[in-house]
Structure of YHS domain protein:
Amino acid sequence: MNKIKSLLGGVALSVAIASSALAAGVEINASSTGLAMQGYDPVAYFTEGEPTKGSYKITALHNDALYRFATEENKAAFEANPEAYLPAYGGYCAFGAAMGFKFDGDPTYWKIVDNKLYLNLSEDIQQRWEGDIPGFIEKASVNWETIADKDPAELQQ
């Protein structure tokens, strides 16, 4: 009986996490399960200097999105100051935000600028973005004020 209660409790927690992530709106680019950054560790970009997959065993919930970490130390650093590690524009593509759209940010196309993590959609988009990083960040930041709470599909109409 305890195993059934434990199983049901785990299922309820999973449903609650997924539901709250979906209810959170669209400011954070998270999968339908609520997983942010496709499971990559946001702290590792700063500590390891490269994209690093997080463990499903080391997680933290922040703003209704689930983040994974490669180490307990990274999780502790994130929990102490999440804003220092969260990607800009909710993890959506920085170049896309500059254009007024919300496209998935690919955690393998990234750059840290002024201690802020930026993700982009693809290698060619990353290269275009790198052509004028300050200009694109400025445009994206202005656009983000009006697109942050909009569904990505709504912006493409």
